[in-house]
Amino acid sequence: xxxxxxxxxxxxxxxxxxxxxxxxxxxxxxxxxxxxxxxxxxxxxxxxxxxxxxxxxxxxxxxxxxxxxxxxxxxxxxxxxxxxxxxxxxxxxxxxxxxxxxxxxxxxxxxxxxxxxxxxxxxxxxxxxxxxxxxxxxxxxxxxxxxxxxxxxxxxxxxxxxxxxxxxxxxxxxxxxxxxxxxxxxxxxxxxxxxxxxxxxxxxxxxxxxxxxxxxxxxxxxxxxxxxxxxxxxxxxxxxxxxxxxxxxxxxxxxxxxxxxxxxxxxxxxxxxxxxxxxxxxxx
Length: 284
Known about the structure:
40% helix, six-stranded antiparallel beta sheet, Jelly Rolls, alpha+beta, 10 strands, 11 helices
């Protein structure tokens, strides 16, 4: 189950959407890992039952049981998820790319591909919400609690949209199909200054972020399984050098070529993209 919930208006500059993600299995030993990919968002997750277990794709390290309440920065690699209990559920907040920087007021690159307990970043403010969250009886109470927590962060952040947001808008407007010169022209930044500001506020370089957004868009197109899709055409449309370059990118994220990839074998990913692609809403 994957359900999205729109944030209240005051939180729209910071949160793309809340989501409720729940999975049930009869036998934990027989569960198939769920594949997920970088989405261009940071995430704050709040488990209400069990814990998701993460393994970074193509990494030989052990699986990581995600903390009860955690924050993760930009994800640049694919990963798989399994569950720790027969019923595992989480409420998450998908954050706008620079939201954590506005709240923390410090560079966020240290959070890239890392799940950090919420208390580590937000201290006592987070500890109090964690205790109350555990005792909440339904999703409405949990969402209301998160709204209050985030509104307190907003009140203390003195938010002002800046040139990094301008660069992000340019990336989104072009579905990730941009080059560094376009971003420099749009923002007035020098290249070194843009690289530094983007890495501080988003966590990764602007072109790395643009490549993630570009792949998100082309993956949604490919996942539609439309017979009219021509990989050569899509490659050109999304500014790939050629179809082999797209194939290489696809294999990097999905482990195999688009011609052999079956999204149906990943039930959660299939559910996420078939109606309202979870990879795209951050752009809107």
